[in-house]
Backbone:
């Protein structure tokens, strides 16, 4: 079609969808005492939640490391914990990026933190890492 | 809805603290892979050095030795792997083109 703009990825069979925000939840599979637990139900819940709030989500299996510190924040010996982290990513339109949605994500992650005995839970919103 | 500040987002999430992630590793596509692939797809030759249709303006641009060396390395690897001869300037032009496109979106 004359004059029609074609995205540079269109040759690869990709149709870009505009989005305004990115949210990524990091779900570890070990508690603060390095005990493993089944993170898959949490991953599924995150996918459902982010799918409902943000129209979609994609999760990735990954490995992560976490520097352990004592209660005062000092790094202790043997201080890195290795985990099999799940990342749950949503690309979000401005319309869906609401205060209510962020509250729900925060509540979910606080529940994950408490129930799975995490020292801290992280998520990224638009290039900013928030620690809960 | 008004734009949410980082402070407001932190409050809504009940976050203890926050810090900036300078490199958007988590959602950035493999930029150079895309640049390489689209450049190789668009390069055509009618007998001489392959070029991209629509790249009509020629300008002299200065580079640092380090940058030029990096561009040369990319061009050499892409030429070898892709079967199409790519020059360092074409790599640079395609990177600039994509950055301008993204910035002007």
Residues:
């Amino acid at each position: 079609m004359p004059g029609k703009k074609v995205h540079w990825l269109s040759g690869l069979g990709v149709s870009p969808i505009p989005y305004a925000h990115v949210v990524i939840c990091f779900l570890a599979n070990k508690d603060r005492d390095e005990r493993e637990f089944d993170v898959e139900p949490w991953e599924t819940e995150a996918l459902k939640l982010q799918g409902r709030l943000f129209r979609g989500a994609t999760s990735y299996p990954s490995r992560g490391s976490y520097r352990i510190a004592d209660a005062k924040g000092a790094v202790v010996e043997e201080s890195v914990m290795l985990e099999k982290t799940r990342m749950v990513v949503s690309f979000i339109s401005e319309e869906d990026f609401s205060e209510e949605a962020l509250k729900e994500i925060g509540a979910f992650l606080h529940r994950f933190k408490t129930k799975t005995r995490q020292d801290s839970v992280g998520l990224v919103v638009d290039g900013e890492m928030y620690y809960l | 809805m008004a734009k949410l500040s980082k402070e407001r987002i932190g409050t809504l999430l009940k976050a203890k603290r926050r810090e900036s992630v300078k490199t958007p590793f988590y959602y950035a596509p493999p930029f150079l892979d895309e640049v390489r692939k689209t450049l190789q797809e668009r390069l055509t030759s009618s007998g001489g050095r392959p070029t991209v249709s629509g790249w009509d303006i020629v300008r002299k641009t200065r580079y640092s030795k380090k940058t030029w060396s990096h561009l040369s390395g990319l061009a050499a690897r892409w030429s070898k792997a892709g079967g199409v001869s790519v020059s360092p300037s074409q790599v640079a032009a395609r990177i600039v083109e994509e950055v301008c496109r993204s910035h002007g979106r």
Summary: The first helix of chain A runs from residue 40 to 54. Helices of chain A lie at 40-54, 99-115. Chain A touches chain B through 30 residues (CB under 8 Å). Chain A has one domain: 17-131.
